Amino acid sequence: MAYLIKRTVNSAIILLLTVSFVFFAGRLIGDPALNMLGPGASDVALENLRRAAGLNDPILIQYFRYILNLLSGDFGISYRYGFSVLPSEKLSEIGQPVIEIVLERLPATFFLAGASMGFAVPLGVIMGVTAAANPRSIADRIVTVMSLAGVSIVQFWLGLMLIVFFAVHLGWLPTGGYGEWWHVILPALTLAARPIGRIAQVTRSAVLEELAKPYIMTARAKGLPPTRVVYLHSLRNAAIPIVTMIGDELSALLTGAILVEKIFAWPGIGLLIIDSLSRSDLPLIQASIIVVAALVVCVNLLVDIAYRLLNPRIRIGKKEA
Q1: pLDDT in tens, 253-309
Q2: How many CA atoms lie within 13 A of 317 on its CB side?
Q3: 251 and 143, same structural domain?
């Protein structure tokens, strides 16, 4: 219980720091009202927005009000997302709550991340175990080359090449879109390349280390089948670094899918961030970043809990012998 409480507090602190950075960064890049309404807004609209949003108050008052609003579920109002600018003092008349917009995009982001990890985890683990079970063999060399290629390849370029080959030349899959299961194949493969390579590398290293330990020699001396020795004994005991890498890659998928979503017109949070940047929609940018940061923090917290389940000897900040 102490382990879980400690990790939860650390996660809350990280999230608070992220929220603080997002808030103050939005104030340092210029006049928030001008950034939100654009240079074409009238002085009346700008002044009404500053007064209605409390932008004329001291910065610390704005900050604490922003934190309290977040705690109550109020992430702000989008003033440019699908609405015209009106010189109104009522925010509800000129915009839409940004949390509604972000939540509409979450299912698409979860679906893409889940499909990508659905490709990456089994393929990466199988490749890594195969290489570890056959060191210095042709299979080991093939896995090494493929994993290095997956880690090194640029996702933007890979996505374009997959579109050219499978969508343009072969016509098997659509170039983009969302709604059917086949729409997710190309973007999921694009995002899965790097996790496959990294998971394969970590699995190979961890399983090789376990296979060299005395208990594995004892299991082999007892005549246990090689498959059982590798998958049941060594892979289970090598699970902690593999779970760590899976958690890291899932976090990277949530934060690094912006360009891929743009390439494939995938309506997730990544594409929403690009759209909100192009519209200079500060509240929507802030809400999107905070939600993504919260998801990453939750993933890392779940990984920490998985550590505790996989190895009960783990304690806060150390491992017991």
Answers
A1: 877 778 888 888 888 888 888 888 877 777 888 888 899 888 888 888 887 777 777
A2: 4
A3: yes
